[in-house]
Amino acid sequence: MTHTPEALDASALDAADPLGAYRSRFLGADDPAIPAYLDGNSLGRPVATLPEAFSSFITEQWGGRLIRGWDESWLELPTRLGDRLGRAVLGAAPGQTVVADSTTVSLYKLLRTALHARPDRHEIVIDRGNFPTDRFVVEGVAAETGARIRWIETEQGSGATLADAAAVIGDATAVVVLSQVAYRSGYLADVPGITALAHEHGALVLWDLCHSVASVPIELDTWGVDLATGCTYKYLNGGPGSPAFLYVSSALLADAGARQPIWGWMGDRDPFAMADGYVPAEGIRRFVSGTPPVVGMIAMQEMLGLIEEVGIKAIRTKSLALTDFAIALVDERLAPLGVVLSTPREHEMRGSHVTIDHPAFAGMMGELWARGVIPDFRAPTGIRLGLSPLSTSFAEVEVTVEEIRGLLAASVA
Amino acid sequence: MTHTPEALDASALDAADPLGAYRSRFLGADDPAIPAYLDGNSLGRPVATLPEAFSSFITEQWGGRLIRGWDESWLELPTRLGDRLGRAVLGAAPGQTVVADSTTVSLYKLLRTALHARPDRHEIVIDRGNFPTDRFVVEGVAAETGARIRWIETEQGSGATLADAAAVIGDATAVVVLSQVAYRSGYLADVPGITALAHEHGALVLWDLCHSVASVPIELDTWGVDLATGCTYKYLNGGPGSPAFLYVSSALLADAGARQPIWGWMGDRDPFAMADGYVPAEGIRRFVSGTPPVVGMIAMQEMLGLIEEVGIKAIRTKSLALTDFAIALVDERLAPLGVVLSTPREHEMRGSHVTIDHPAFAGMMGELWARGVIPDFRAPTGIRLGLSPLSTSFAEVEVTVEEIRGLLAASVA
């Protein structure tokens, strides 16, 4: 189902928005040089408390506690923050999530883990439209292990349906690698349906949550997901390049065959024994390899505080209101100029960004950005309107659509 | 050769120290609660400009440029910062170094690269005394590839001599994995000698520079090193868990067989084409996998500024003066109480930390730390006095030795 707002009145929608006040909790939200930032789905804005959080971290924790900080709190940060993400945005009970490494490295570890846990199977299922790093990791792992890739032939960035998946998943499938929200179209996949289908065939699932986490409801435990990972710099506002989270279900953790390939001191049972021979830690800790990236984990904690205040349900409600509004504006003001909506209209098939396509968009991005109107572009013809529920206003959506309309009209004239 | 200071007078040595003024460039150096911090070899102090650097990064770069920051500077940061490290502290010409991932993940990538580049060889040489994460990565890679580990049987943390290496390296050796400075003893290995020996046998070398970089001279290009990696949170003061650097020689980069296993979008020839099929970037960029950890790279840039001002030669001179002083104090005041020096006395065999052993040390650490006298402990009986040339004073060394003497005398009495 889809909803069209009664009137396309951004001011009224902002005034009535129960989460409207949260916009002031982000830095730069009222910067006159940036009238509209619609790329929070790629890099979330900094939370306003960050300068103080970093200053106090540097002075009091790092500078004041020095090496003692490791024993006092930092060593446990990957699992403590993982548990907190599990509770707030992943639907994951404690002990299954850590924060560490990049999404790419996490994908590599989890994919190798899946193949290790299904030694009698040799096929990896992934959709052709998945984000490049997911596909590249799969290609690399296939090249090194001899696994065969079974491609779901979707359009670039469009996402795979249950039927698409059913046509490819079979009894030789070791693991299915898909994204909950497609990076280009914003398509929201049927995670529980595809997960159940994979399990019927004895396969594992590895869900990439980069473009969904903290903007749509996720219930990893309830859905029976085996493996998942995702970015923290999009809707979790962790800052450029902040580390990824990585989830392994308790059931799979109990399987001694589920072992990741990058054996490091922080995944050892007793890192400071400095003993002979790697012995993996019990539980999720064995998925950590190197020293935890503590500085990179500061910003997402501030954002998590806001998310915990609001709750994912209210965040999703706002997200849908924003995407409904964007779609209605596109229908009214851009469709007549030949702009095509590439995002599903149905709520249950839509994440938190709206993608529109037009051949003239590639030539317009420089001018848009120069005006401080900042969506992002995906080749060859797509503009993504990324709507970050706690920091994006309805006014920003309207400003962006209006600027695009003006530039398009001028280019056609 | 070794040098004993003429008089064990910390005040005079500090007063005459040409780098003494640099101490004030670090936060907390005059914190009365911490009279001596001798663990900068494990976690360097924050540079004094950091709160301002982070605040300006958050407000102006992240908050002000938002997603545009990637195109404007962040995408190139791994290679730009790598080149800068190459020039300032690694003796590496541009185009061979990147900053990314943890040291453990870097070791994994480089070790797999080495095996890939030597497909007809199946032995990995490593010393038993190497840092745990190096040994664990080697064990993991051996388990997955079937490579055989040839151990150099050194004491834990003692480091391997040229003779030790010569006894094990042979014509089946694919790669030799050693540390320039041994994490426990501070032993400084003969990098050019062992590298030449490995090359005579057709093997590659992978040097771990964690405990040496920015405290001792390094000439990777001149020495013909093939592969290297190291931490940035020790003498490069990058903050807890800051990302590692990774070096691959131009010669090895020219070898198409030298390929790392974690294929990600940032190592692709054209990340934003989002095209089918991974095509590794030319040169060192193909060793990057995921999105660069930009926030984690801020602090080390401030420290690099100081290092570039001073130069590695003056840093090494101060380091040797500090370790000379520490050894002389240990000889005079702790040896009579049964304390054993575990660090080589010869300058050319010594890094920037001094390790001493005594059975009573394990029981003394809590009290030392409670007094704000902070060296670190390595089981079973070692205290490491880590002397970070730009931030450690001679007075801190004396305070630490005196506190240890007092506690030891009391425990014996």
What's the short version?
Two copies of one chain form a homodimer. The first copy, chain A, is α/β, with parallel strands linked by helices. Chain A has helices at 10-16, 50-65, 68-72, 77-90, 103-117, 132-145, 162-166, 191-200, 220-223, 250-253, 298-310, 312-334, 365-370, 394-412, and strands at residues 36-37, 97-99, 123-127, 148-152, 173-179, 204-208, 227-230, 245-248, 340-341, 353-357, 373-374, 376-378, 382-386.
Describe this structure in words.
The structure is a homodimer of 413-residue chains. Chain A is of the alpha/beta class and 413 residues long. Chain A folds into 2 domains: 10-48 and 311-412, Aspartate Aminotransferase, domain 1, CATH 3.90.1150.10; 73-306, Aspartate Aminotransferase, domain 2, CATH 3.40.640.10. Chain A is 38% helix and 13% strand. The first copy, chain A, is built from 14 helices and 13 strands. The first copy, chain A, has helices at residues 10-16, 50-65, 68-72, 77-90, 103-117, 132-145, 162-166, 191-200, 220-223, 250-253, 298-310, 312-334, 365-370, 394-412, and strands at residues 36-37, 97-99, 123-127, 148-152, 173-179, 204-208, 227-230, 245-248, 340-341, 353-357, 373-374, 376-378, 382-386. In chain A, the strands form 3 sheets. In chain A, strands 2-8-7-6-5-3-4 form a 7-stranded mixed beta sheet, with helices on both faces. A 4-stranded antiparallel beta sheet of chain A has the order 9-10-13-12, with helices on one face. In chain A, a hairpin with a 3-residue loop joins strand 12 and strand 13. In chain A, helix 12 (312-334) packs parallel to helix 14 (394-412). The two termini of chain A are 36 Å apart. The model of chain A has no long low-confidence stretch (mean pLDDT 96). At the A-B interface, helix 2, helix 3, helix 5 and helix 6 of A face helix 2, helix 3, helix 5 and helix 6 of B. Chains A, B: Pathway: Amino-acid degradation; L-kynurenine degradation; L-alanine and anthranilate from L-kynurenine: step 1/1; Cofactor biosynthesis; NAD(+) biosynthesis; quinolinate from L-kynurenine: step 2/3. Chains A, B: Its EC number is 3.7.1.3. Chains A, B: One of its GO terms (cellular component) is cytoplasm. Chains A, B: Keywords: Hydrolase, Pyridine nucleotide biosynthesis, Pyridoxal phosphate.
